[in-house]
Write a structure and sequence with these properties.
Strand order of the largest sheet: 1-7-4-5-3
Largest sheet: 5 strands, antiparallel
Number of strands: 8
Radius of gyration: 17 Å
Number of helices: 3
Structural class: mainly beta
Mean pLDDT: 86
């Protein structure tokens, strides 16, 4: 968000709801809660569901495309940038990859969520040993 001031001739009351309560489908509501894909993933058992995807040229393009969804994943690959929109993110937690995964092999990217996400109690390799 760019910085700046709004100058008014009349005083203004502070709203009783915050921006994301008033405008839940705004892409800005995806910016506060995120998971760095290089170090964490979302737990698969949570039922998060991929809804749609595009090739995006920027993070903001991705977030604007996914603004009506519960989450968005923006990743950079050698072949191009990827944007995936997710819904149904209840009971989701951020799961560390674990000691057996070389995080340098994970593509850089972030998963952005409208709701805060807790860290899982178990890492990915312990939860999914056959992966």
């Amino acid at each position: 968000i760019s910085s700046g001031y709004i100058y008014l001739k009349q005083p203004v009351e502070t709203c009783e709801v915050d921006y994301c309560d008033a405008y839940p489908d705004s892409w800005l509501c995806l910016t506060a809660n995120y998971v760095n894909r290089r170090y964490n993933t979302l737990n698969d058992a949570s039922g998060f569901k991929e809804e749609t995807s595009i090739e995006a040229s920027s993070r903001n393009e991705c977030l604007k495309f996914c603004e009506t969804y519960a989450g968005a994943e923006y990743s950079k690959y050698k072949s191009g940038d990827s944007c995936v929109c997710y819904s149904t993110l209840q009971d989701t937690c951020a799961m560390p990859w674990g000691d057996q995964v070389s995080t340098s092999e994970i593509s850089s990217g972030y998963i952005y969520l409208k709701q805060p996400v807790e860290t899982c109690e178990v890492d990915y390799c312990d939860a999914y040993p056959d992966s």
